[in-house]
Amino acid sequence: MSKSVYVYTFARCSWRRKSLAAKRVMRFCGSEENQRLERLLQDNLAREMRLWRAPVLHGGCIQGSDIAPNVYREIITWLQEMSGMFKFCSETFALGVCVLNRLLATVKAQSKYLKCMAITSLILAAKINEEDEVTASVKDLLAQSGCSFSTAEILRMERIILDKLHWDLYTATPIDFIHIFRALLVSTHPHLALVAAQKKPCLQASLWTRQVQHCMACHQLWQFKGSTLALAIITLELEKLTPDWFSFFSDLLKKAQVKSAEFICCKEMVDEYLASLEPSSPPNALYVLDTTHLKLRACEEARGDASLSWEVDDFCDGFGNLYNEVPPLEVGLEDVGGPLQNK
Question: Domain Cyclin-like: where (predicted)?
Answer without folding.
Answer: 77-163
